[in-house]
Design a protein that fits this description.
alpha/beta; six-stranded parallel beta sheet; 12 helices; 22% strand; 354 residues; six-stranded antiparallel beta sheet
């Protein structure tokens, strides 16, 4: 409940962070005599429905967790052979989002259960955002997976290892997205998203520059933005990153086009994402180097795919710095801090949205 209060009172809800998600371990170790999930009697004395109604009273949305197998990842009751029964509980609890995990489960059961759960959620009549871990468990086992089926069943899906509170974790996710971008961009779009896992900004493992990098890259990835942090004691500089409306606007661009890596040389990368108005782009200049000094970088807009003959109005959106009008043959010059980013929007000249 504290996190719900913080989302509202500290401006996160108004910036678009509207989901409060309950993860594993919320239930008792055994189902009741009728086979239903039972809320932990010490942590949720008034039950899961009561919690959901408090979250809804704040204008927020309520997310819930389960897992495909007989047990969850933390050895609590799983949904295997209980999908219809559990979905009835979720309907009664009035959830708005559901994450379905897949620990300790044979791949044949995954292929059966993820579509089955999606159909059951749809039958509730509630608009429930469905988050699947389906492709991750095939990736982790080194097994082939048909990604094209995902948009038919899921709204978002985990594709890579769990994030942890470290720069190594962030940089490995960025590498995975770049190395697999043809596949990942082909299945992403409005209503169906690749999920690189949560924002860890405001914890202990990332520097200020690295926190900006995660926010910028998740925006270019068109990734779902879910925070995993303690909003009660987050430092102001990290809060400002999370609440940056211009970066959030890139993430939420209505076209829903996932960005791509268009340049990668000696630890310096450039990523671009089409945004509105048509012909415009968000661009991230990323320095993966850790050699201790800012890197001076320059490249023509044409060389990163910005070729509109009208030119672009260019703004750095962390610093709110206006570069003015640049054309496709112009060089863009910047200094990128180690493990940091420079993030710009380049909006087509003459647009009413400048």
């Amino acid at each position: 409940m504290d996190m719900a209060d913080r989302l509202v009172e500290d401006g996160y809800r108004d910036a678009g962070y509207v989901y409060i998600n309950v993860d594993d371990c919320y239930m008792e170790k055994a189902r009741d005599s009728r086979g239903r999930l039972v809320a932990d009697k010490h942590r949720f004395l008034q039950g899961m429905q009561k919690l959901g109604r408090y979250i809804h009273s704040k204008g927020l949305k309520y997310g819930m967790y389960e897992s495909v197998g007989s047990t969850t990842c933390m050895d609590y009751p799983g949904s295997w052979e209980h999908i219809a029964q559990d979905v009835q509980s979720f309907k009664e609890w009035e959830i708005d989002m559901f994450k379905f995990d897949g620990c300790f489960t044979e791949h044949e059961k995954l292929d059966k259960s993820y579509p089955e759960m999606g159909r059951a959620l749809n039958k509730t009549g509630r608009p429930i955002l469905y988050s699947c871990s389906w492709p991750y468990y095939f990736f982790a086992a080194g097994k082939p997976f048909n990604y094209t089926q995902l948009p038919h069943y899921c709204n978002m899906w985990r594709i890579y290892h769990d994030i942890d509170d470290s720069w190594n974790s962030i940089s490995s996710i960025i590498k995975f997205y770049g190395d697999n971008q043809d596949l990942l961009t082909s299945v992403a779009g409005p209503g169906h998203w690749n999920d690189p896992d949560m924002l860890i900004i405001g914890n202990f493992g990332l520097s200020y520059e690295q926190s900006k990098t995660q926010m910028a890259m998740w925006a270019v990835f068109a990734a779902p933005l879910f925070m995993s942090n303690d909003l009660r004691d987050i430092r102001p500089e990290f809060k400002d990153i999370l609440l940056n409306r211009k970066v959030i606007a890139v993430n939420q661009d209505p076209q829903g086009i996932q960005g791509r890596r268009v340049y990668s040389v000696a630890g310096i990368q450039v990523w671009t994402r089409p945004i509105l108005p048509i012909g415009s782009h968000a661009v991230v200049f990323l320095n993966l180097r850790i050699d201790g000094t800012p890197y001076k970088f320059s490249i023509s807009l044409r060389d990163i795919g910005l070729t509109n003959h009208k030119g672009y109005q260019v703004e750095e959106i962390f610093l709110n710095y206006d570069y003015g009008t640049l054309h496709s043959g112009d060089e863009f010059k910047c200094r990128i801090n180690p493990t940091g980013v420079v993030m710009i929007t380049a909006k087509v000249q003459g647009s009413n949205e400048l």
